[in-house]
Amino acid sequence: MTETYEMTETYEVIVIGGGAAGLSAALVLGRSRRRTLVVDAGEPRNAPAAHMQGFLTRDGMPPAEFLAIGREEIEQYGVELVRDRVVEVAEGFAVTLASGRVLRARRLVVATGLKDELPEVPGVAERFGKDVLHCPYCHGWEVRDQAFGVLATSALSVHQALMVSQWSKDVTFFLHEVAEADLAADDLRRLAAAGVEVVPGEVAELVVTDDRLTAVRLKDGTAHAREVVFTAPRAVPRSGLLERLGAELAETPFGAYPVVDATGQTSVPGVWAAGNAVGFGEQVINAAAGGYRAGAAINGDLLMADLDTAAGV
């Protein structure tokens, strides 16, 4: 059965963000016969990566292909998608787009993700997603047994150096701007036990030869042959809309994220969040699951609200 809607600017649900979380929420809502719009600025976090891993049945699929299939799937259920950016959300969920279009929704899903700010070392940004990586679960298998470097961004980078040693026994930990004195004694013992070489001194650049990372050069001129570099970007949550809506945020070592319940509902009635909008570690498969939970919860919330109105409850 096909429903026909009037051409209005009012939707039951507007999903802000068209990544895995947003598309998954939209899929559930479309299948629940909810008039849904996805507003997508086209800035997925994993755009630099050639492939995504760890998603059962989709392991190795290019992220762009994954999103293209997702857009085709939601379209089958009448979900609309617009390439635009939400610049403001006013009272009553009046949503203003960068294009000037003003929409209204009964419920919102914020799936705006986050932005990775990389260390300002020449070569890092250019090689990110190729042979400069951040997640061993995402890329460790593909670069296993190569010569790893880990570029420290804080004392917490010790954890990253220890983790990647599971995928290679040739790991060098470049302290960069972190002083060795800032590392805990237990961490130094763990690094030694894992066979990780610790190299003090600031990194000047990554050396690239024939479009391949070949070395890490320090400010003192010494170069260490490496084939892969792991580093932890600074996560910058795209939480501006949630802040303006008055959502409660909680500080974490990776930024401030909204406080949500098990379905992704924020402290603002009618507003859900999913994917990297709720946490740094939401991989694609987790983000899709979060979007599914949010979509199902919103459908139930709308159903009960309409029944209560009809029943005079």
Characteristic terms for this protein:
313 residues, alpha/beta, FAD/NAD(P)-binding domain, five-stranded parallel sheet, 27% helix, 28% strand
Description of the structure:
Helix 1 runs parallel beside helix 2 (63-75) and helix 1 (20-31) packs parallel to helix 8. A hairpin with a 2-residue loop joins strand 12 (203-209) and strand 13. The chain contains eight helices and 19 strands. Residues 1-8 have low confidence and may be disordered. It is elongated. The protein has helices at 20-31, 63-75, 124-127, 136-139, 157-164, 185-193, 240-245, 284-311; strands at 10-16, 36-40, 80-83, 86-90, 94-97, 102-110, 114-117, 132-133, 148-151, 171-174, 197-199, 203-209, 212-218, 223-225, 228-231, 234-237, 249-252, 255-258, 271-273. Strands 1, 2, 3, 4, 5, 6 and 19 form a seven-stranded mixed beta sheet that branches. It is α/β, with parallel strands linked by helices and 313 residues long. The protein folds into two domains: 10-116 and 234-311, 3-Layer(bba) Sandwich (FAD/NAD(P)-binding domain), CATH 3.50.50; 119-231, FAD/NAD(P)-binding domain (3-Layer(bba) Sandwich).
